[in-house]
Amino acid sequence: MAVPDFVSPDAALEQYRTPAKVATDLLWEAHQEDEIRGRSVVDLGCGTGVFAVGATILGADPVVGIDVDPGALGIARHQGVHTIESDVADVDLDLVGHPVDTVLMNPPFGAQNKGADRPFYEAAARLLDGRGAAWFLALSKTEKFLGHQAARLGADLERIMDWPYPIEARFAFHRDEVRTFEVAGYRMGW
Ligand code: SAH
């Protein structure tokens, strides 16, 4: 999977492309749980579309990518992703227009704006409407917060796997060339 990076990444939106290995690992786990092939999938905060493209390759149908950044959506569309431009706060089933079985997402980790991932869990809950699952990445140190979000939304939280997650310096405030974060893959299921 060679999905292009953001052309001019926006720090406030925490635009980091998921490393291909991490995206593939998470997609494969979801696939093994029978939550990709033949399923209706939404890639929330799709950026340039790595999860949407991967899900399509694994047989998901339909697949929709949603993001607030028109530039990133242009790149995703170029990969063949069907896209909708929206802030995650406004995402609901009416916007998507069909039922959703599985949500895939790599939300902002909240490094710039604390709690920036919270509207993503809420949007996933609205889309899934009491069934299905959201597969996502988060800093493992925020697991307690994630557990609270899941409980509040009536879901179960399961930690699927861990990766050392290198983030290359790309914004002016980054001091180190590469910093490695402890990131885990989670399944929030209803
Ligand atoms: N899913 C992509 C991008 C992850 S970066 C990948 O895995 O490579 C986080 C993405 O969330 C960015 O594309 C950013 O534009 C988007 N985003 C951040 N805040 C958002 C919001 N409030 N509404 C919609 N998208 C948002």
What is the count of helical runs?
A: 6
Largest sheet data: 7 strands, mixed
Indicate the low-confidence ranges by residue numbers.
none
Find the count of extended strands (DSSP E, 2+ residues): 7
Question: How do the helices and strands follow one another from N- to C-terminus?
Answer: HEHEHEHEHEHEE
What spatial form do the alpha-carbon principal axes imply? Answer: globular
Radius of gyration: 15 Å
Task: Note down, in words, how this protein is organized.
This protein is of the alpha/beta class and 190 residues long. It contains six helices and seven strands, in the order H-E-H-E-H-E-H-E-H-E-H-E-E. Helix content is 29%, strand content 26%. Strand 2 (63-67), helix 3 (70-78) and strand 3 form a beta-alpha-beta unit. Helix 1 (20-32) crosses helix 2 (50-57). It starts with 19 loop residues before the first helix and ends with a strand. Residues 13-18, 45-47, 50-51, 67-69, 72, 87-88, 106, 108 line the site of S-adenosyl-L-homocysteine. S-adenosyl-L-homocysteine binds at residues 13-18, 45-47, 50-51, 67-69, 72, 87-88, 106, 108.
Keywords:
190 residues; alpha/beta; seven-stranded mixed β-sheet; 6 helices; 7 strands; globular; binds S-adenosyl-L-homocysteine
Task: Please summarize what this structure is.
With 190 residues, this protein is α/β, with parallel strands linked by helices. The protein has helices at residues 20-32, 50-57, 70-78, 93-96, 118-128, 143-152, and strands spanning 41-44, 63-67, 82-85, 102-105, 133-139, 156-168, 178-189.
